[in-house]
Amino acid sequence: MEELIKTIWSNETWLWSLGIISILSFVASLVFIPYLIVRMPADYFSAEKRHKTPWADQHIIIRTVLITLKNCLGIVLVILGLAMLVLPGQGLLTLFIGLICLNFPGKYRLEKWLIQQKNIRRSIDWLRQRAGSEPLNYE
């Protein structure tokens, strides 16, 4: 670990790269995350089971491409969210949106549990209220 820290501090390219990534992820989180939260349907968390995706009736190839792209976006957001826990940005919200984009067994139950967490719920409610969106139904 010490060697890694020494290598990073002695390499100017690494420092600039980390700085640029940090700034870009911060700006992207300020723009992209609130946009996604505001566009989320108000009843997303009120159903017993997950909602049908808009592309569920599309051709299998189109559906597969869209699901793959959505999962890639989810992975990027989860990684950025983890990084933003120590870098500037909205780490918890970014992680949450990243998890929503991913497909895995038990995801909906995990999302419903996460949304019940006080800090995440308060942040989402504040963003939606500020944008004039209908509040999320949690039950």
From TrEMBL:
It comes from the Bacteria. InterPro entries: Uncharacterised_PGPGW_TM. Keywords: Membrane, Transmembrane, Transmembrane helix. The chain crosses the membrane at residues 14-39, 60-86. It holds the Pfam family PGPGW. This is Transmembrane protein. It comes from Methylophaga aminisulfidivorans MP.
